[in-house]
Amino acid sequence: MLTQMALRAEKSGSGGGTGSGTKEARIMGQSNQMQTSSVQVRNILTRTTGFLKTVTSHSAQPYRGCSFGMSLCGIGCYVQHNHYLTRGQAWGRFLEARENAAASYLQTVERERKWARRSLGRFGIFLSSSTEPFLPQESRYRVTRALLEAMKREPPDFLILQTHSHRVVEYLQLYLALKECCELRVHISIETDRERIPGLPAHASSVARRFEAATALKAAGVRTVITVSPLLPIEDPEEFFARVSRSADAVVIDHFIEGDGTPDGRRTLRTALPAAMGALHPDALTVEYRDSMVQVARRYLPGRVGVSIDGFAGRYLPGP
User: Fold this and answer.
1) pLDDT tens digits for 284-298?
2) What is the CATH number of the domain that holds 167?
3) How many whole angstroms separate alpha carbon 231 and alpha carbon 286?
4) Domain range for residue 279?
5) Whole-prediction pTM value?
6) How many angstroms separate the CA atoms of 68 and 94, rounded?
7) pLDDT at residue 33, rounded to an integer
8) Residues of the chain whose pLDDT is less than 50?
9) What is the spatial distance between Cα 232 and Cα 236, in angstroms, rounded to a whole number?
């Protein structure tokens, strides 16, 4: 899930942007008004600020933009409100592949590792907070794969992969190698048990396929967390969280209120998401609904339920 952490993840300072000496973006193609380009960046590692600072020392974004932006997850995506990232472009209509991400990582990792350990105790990377690492276009650009290969050579102390796509499972063998050299956790967003929300676009990756991916990763010994984020109306909470318990090692539940970078969810309230949620279940618009889902989840995953940013950081509620 792209949480409020994305709103500050790529401010100028330690990295993320293109440099003045960087070659101009090369327009690679356009399909269904999706403009894709390829650029080189100065520094793929960004020192975290704000809420994400309690999760990892750094974030990394292999792409700028997201081709999932016109699907269900893109409707309420908090990154669309970050004008530093969108640069005036319509969310879901552009994708910039950072083709030198792996080389940039290898050039800066020693410096950033030393800074993180000295300042925070551990060198951790959140991949990614402002884009989807496993987009369909990844099969063409392979930026995420190259970056993960670079991390295998020069591993962080811990790595969190955050995704909304079943395609995450395609790099399973690479994760098995990575978890031998760093602490690895894969977060898969599954925000509801409903395959369709009336009035909204379809999921970019079906609920069923994301559950299958989570199950496969867990079975292979990769620590897997399902992030119910942002929490949407759940048709059968008991069955949903029972399924989560079979498919993952832990769960995170995050509501757009307190989760979109504003205390009252005002960013999300400007989108079509709340109206569609309210039409299905009016209570789903409240944090009380989140808390009721947390209680159901705790019955199935005692000691393995996280709420909001604490959950993303691996800080879970105690068991009964």
Assistant:
1) 999 999 999 999 999
2) 3.80.30.30
3) 10
4) 4-13+25-312
5) 0.90
6) 10
7) 75
8) 1-31
9) 12
